[in-house]
Amino acid sequence: MTRMETKVTLDAPLVCDLSVLNESDRARMAKVSMEIVKMMESVHPLAQGYSFHASNNSDTLRKIAEWIPLEQACCPFLHFEITVGGGQTDVIVNLTGPPGTREFLEQELSGAAAMKADNVQENILQ
Predict the structure, then answer these.
(1) pLDDT, tens only, 29-68
(2) Are 78 and 72 in contact (CB under 8 A)?
(3) pTM (2 decimals)?
(4) Is 114 exposed, middle or buried (0-12, 13-18, 19+ CB in 10 A)?
(5) Distance, first Cα to last Cα, the chain
(6) How far apart are CA 50 and CA 46, in angstroms?
């Protein structure tokens, strides 16, 4: 099993600042974020965030690798943990942070979840 973790300073405020991205990166982030939402097979709540599960394939891994640096730039308080198992196991992305992160993510993801509810087996806002 392979694990890759990206940690950021946890004293950063719970604010997503898209102004740190140039126009091209903002457009790319919007596109990649929607592609990742479409890939989600299930979402599970965690104490301070969510666990996203998707099929283990090279396209999923490429999209996640493209998405994380963009998301880190505008939301530096987020902590990403990726688990990739062998065979047909899911790719798991745990997205967490300091207290309040789960509630922040609920607000950010509620629109995407509503648009793609048929792709998600569990309701994000449980």
Answers:
(1) 999 999 998 999 999 999 999 999 999 999 999 999 999 9
(2) yes
(3) 0.75
(4) exposed
(5) 29
(6) 5
Within 10 A of 60 (CB to CB), how many other CB atoms are there?
A: 20
Enter the tokens of residue 33. 């974020």
Query: Which one-letter amino acid corresponds to residue 84?
Result: V
Contact 8/77 with Cβ under 8 angstroms?
A: yes
Tokens of 89: 């196991």
Tokens of 71: 């998301």
Using CA of residue 116, residue 118, residue 122, residue 126, what is the dihedral sign? positive
d(CA 58, CA 101): 29
Question: For residue 44, which of 110, 95, 104 has the smallest C-alpha distance?
Answer: 95
